C-alpha cells in the first residue's frame, strides 16, 4: 500500500512565510528557509511553496528564494505562484523545484496544463484548486487567491485538467482554510474516488485526528497543512507516530 504523505506548506508573501484564515487576516509565520529545513529534518514527505501574491516583477526574487530553500532540504519540493509558461517552469526546475503548481493561469488557459505535461511529464504538474462550497451545496472553483468566483464546478474542472495531463490535484477548501476544524472530507473523497491521480487535501487541519479522518474517510493521498506546523502546535514525528498507531501507512 502506498504511504500517505504529510506536506507542510509555505505560503510566501514578500519573502516571508505567512498564514491566514479563510484566505484573509494574513499574519507572519517565519523565515521560509529555516522552516523548510526544519520540516525536512522532522520527516516531512514533501514541501510546498506557494507565492500567494506572485507577479511577473517578483520572478527573480521567487527564483532566488526557491534556490535557497532547495539547498536546505532533501525532500520533493513543489513550487507555485505566478507560473504561466514553459519558461517559468524551466527556471524554477533549474533552481531546485521538483514539481510545479498551477492554478489561475491553468484555469484561464487550460492548454497550459497540456504544454507543461508534454514538456516536463505529468508527474511534474500539480493542479491547485481553491474551492468553496456555496449555499446550493456544490463546490466551485475560485481564482486569484480565492478572490474571484468562476461558477465552474470543482469536479468538472479537476476532471478536465487531469485529462489534459495534470498528475496531481492540490485541493484547498476555502471554507476550512485556517479554521483548524478539520479537512473537507466530502469533496476530497469525491475527487479521490473519481480521478486516477493523487489528491492532496488542504485547508482545516488542526488535530492529529483530522489527518486520520482525511486519510480514512476522505481517501486523500496526502494532507497539507501550514499554521499547525509553523506555530509548533503539532510536530511531524508525533503526527506520523499517531497515524501509524491508527494503521495508516506513513513513511518514518
Short description:
The chain is of the alpha/beta class and 252 residues long. It has one domain (5-245): TIM Barrel, CATH 3.20.20.70. It has helices spanning 32-42, 59-70, 86-94, 104-108, 111-120, 154-164, 185-194, 208-216, 227-230, 236-245; strands at 5-13, 16-21, 24-30, 47-51, 77-80, 99-102, 125-133, 139-143, 148-153, 168-173, 199-202, 222-225.
CATH superfamily: Aldolase class I
- Percent of residues in beta strands: 25-35%
Overall form: globular
What's the CATH topology name? TIM Barrel
Structural class: alpha/beta
CATH architecture: Alpha-Beta Barrel
N-to-C order of helices and strands: EEEHEHEHEHHEEEHEHEHEHH
Which runs of at least 5 residues are low in confidence (pLDDT < 50)?
Answer: none
Residue share in helices?
25-40%
Radius of gyration: 17 Å
Give the strand tally.
12
How do the strands line up in the largest sheet?
A: 1-4-5-6-7-10-11-12
Q: What composes the largest sheet?
A: 8 strands, parallel, barrel
Helix count, per DSSP? Answer: 10
Q: Return the CATH class.
A: Alpha Beta
Count of domains: 1
C-alpha end-to-end distance: 15 Å
Residue-averaged pLDDT: 92
Amino acid at each position: 500500500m502506498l504511504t500517505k504523505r504529510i506536506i507542510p506548506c509555505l505560503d510566501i508573501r514578500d519573502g516571508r512565510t505567512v498564514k491566514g484564515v479563510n484566505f484573509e487576516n494574513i499574519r507572519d509565520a517565519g523565515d521560509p528557509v529555516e522552516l523548510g529545513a526544519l520540516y525536512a529534518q522532522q520527516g516531512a514527505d514533501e514541501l510546498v511553496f506557494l507565492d500567494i501574491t506572485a507577479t511577473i516583477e517578483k520572478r527573480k526574487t521567487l527564483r532566488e528564494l526557491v534556490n535557497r530553500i532547495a539547498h536546505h532540504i532533501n525532500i520533493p519540493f513543489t513550487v507555485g505562484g505566478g507560473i504561466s509558461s514553459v519558461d517559468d517552469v524551466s527556471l524554477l526546475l533549474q533552481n531546485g523545484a521538483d514539481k510545479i503548481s498551477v492554478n489561475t493561469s491553468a484555469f484561464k488557459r487550460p492548454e497550459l496544463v497540456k504544454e507543461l505535461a508534454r514538456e516536463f511529464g505529468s508527474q511534474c504538474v500539480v493542479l491547485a484548486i481553491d474551492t468553496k462550497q456555496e449555499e446550493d451545496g456544490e463546490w466551485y472553483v475560485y481564482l486569484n487567491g480565492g478572490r474571484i468566483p468562476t461558477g465552474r464546478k470543482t469536479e468538472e474542472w479537476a476532471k478536465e485538467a487531469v485529462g489534459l495531463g495534470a498528475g496531481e490535484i492540490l485541493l484547498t477548501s476555502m471554507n476550512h482554510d485556517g479554521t483548524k476544524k478539520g479537512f473537507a472530507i466530502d469533496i476530497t473523497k469525491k475527487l479521490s474516488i473519481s480521478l486516477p491521480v493523487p489528491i492532496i487535501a488542504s485547508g482545516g487541519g488542526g488535530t492529529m485526528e483530522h489527518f486520520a479522518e482525511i486519510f480514512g474517510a476522505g481517501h486523500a493521498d496526502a494532507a497539507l497543512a501550514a499554521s499547525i506546523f509553523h506555530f509548533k502546535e503539532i510536530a511531524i514525528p508525533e503526527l506520523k507516530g499517531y497515524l501509524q498507531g491508527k494503521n495508516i501507512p506513513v513513511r518514518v
